[in-house]
Design brief:
286 residues, alpha/beta, D-Maltodextrin-Binding Protein, domain 2, Alpha-Beta Plaits, 3 domains, 6-stranded mixed sheet, 5-stranded mixed sheet, binds adenosine-5'-triphosphate, binds zinc ion
Length: 286
């Protein structure tokens, strides 16, 4: 029997959609019915296990799963024998300390001798230690934000996205403890075959990620501008240049990074570029 790589993803919750989408974009075809525990990819030696995200680091340590997708916050909190393989650029959030709105905060030292409720005791402890602050930590597993209101704690440390949950509980965010995003973790002791499958998958994830960060750009320009434009948007090797029917003009095709895209568009226009089209790229392999 040939080896397969077992990848654990969240059964339901905020990581699930992004995880499924990423695996599908890497070309894996599998069915994921409701209440299903696992699914075998039809066209790749991968089996997907649907588990509670908080349990995934332990399953990877126990080798029930070979790899998994979890929030970086969970990876750090659990301190299991997992290797962080890759940050995945979705489910971005931050773990922050919040206190009652009427309380004052004058820096981390304000937390001295306070009680902090959290589902992330390890992360909070490390953070406080790093800043030489001594505080009590109350581990609770859900609805952390109600703790100050019921007199259980003076502060909380929890995931914040919009802040509206904090607001409705009379709290304010005062301190970011860590930024998090979905990460791919794996057992540090994979067999050679499993490692090869993981490498293939990583290659595909890279192609999907580069494609997301780049756009395909097509424009018309006077021939005199080709050199300047090529310096600005060199693309992967060099732009493709096709003569236009109109004498003295060319169509130039290249790739541009999403981040400096708007800035470059302005320059391109100033160089005489016209009819600029920018289209998404599905996969990009350098
Ligand atoms: P449970 O497992 O008990 O259902 P949970 O908080 O672990 O609760 P989710 O709310 O699905 O489960 O969150 C899973 C992960 O998604 C978190 O560990 C975090 O990394 C990330 N996450 C949480 N909230 C957000 C958010 N609002 N935006 C983006 N990512 C988030
Ligand atoms: Zn969870």
């Amino acid at each position: 029997m040939t080896d397969i790589l077992r990848i654990a993803i969240q059964k339901s919750g905020r990581l699930q959609e992004g995880s499924l989408q990423l695996l599908k974009e890497t070309g894996l075809s599998f069915s994921n019915g409701k209440d299903q525990l696992k699914a075998q990819a039809r066209n790749f030696p991968v089996e997907i296990l649907f588990l509670r995200d908080d349990d995934i680091p332990q399953y990877v340590e126990d080798k029930v799963a070979d790899a998994g997708i979890v929030g970086e916050n969970v990876y750090i909190e659990k301190q299991k024998n997992n290797a962080l393989i890759k940050r995945l650029d979705f489910s971005k959030c931050r773990l922050s300390i919040a206190i009652p709105r009427s309380d004052t905060y004058e820096g981390i030292q304000s937390l001295n001798k306070k009680n902090i409720a959290t589902s992330y005791p390890v992360i909070v402890k490390n953070f406080l230690d790093k800043h030489n602050v001594t505080a009590g930590i109350h581990e609770i597993s859900g609805s952390v934000e109600i703790a100050p209101g019921i007199g259980l704690a003076d502060a909380i440390c929890d995931i914040v996205s919009t802040g509206s949950t904090l607001l409705s509980n009379g709290l304010k965010e005062v301190q970011v403890v860590m930024q998090s995003e979905a990460v791919l973790i794996a057992s540090p002791q994979l067999t050679e075959t499993k490692k090869q499958i993981l490498d293939k998958l990583l290659f595909r994830i890279d192609a999907v990620q580069s494609a997301k960060n780049n756009k395909y750009i097509l424009l018309n320009c006077p021939n005199e501008a080709i050199e300047k434009i090529t310096t600005l948007i060199p693309g992967m090797k060099s732009p493709t240049i096709i003569p236009l029917g109109r004498v003295g003009w060319s169509s130039l095709h290249s790739v541009v990074n999403e981040n400096d895209f708007w800035e470059k568009i302005d320059l391109l226009k100033s160089f005489g570029a016209e009819g600029i089209l920018v289209v998404p790229i599905e996969k990009m392999i350098a």
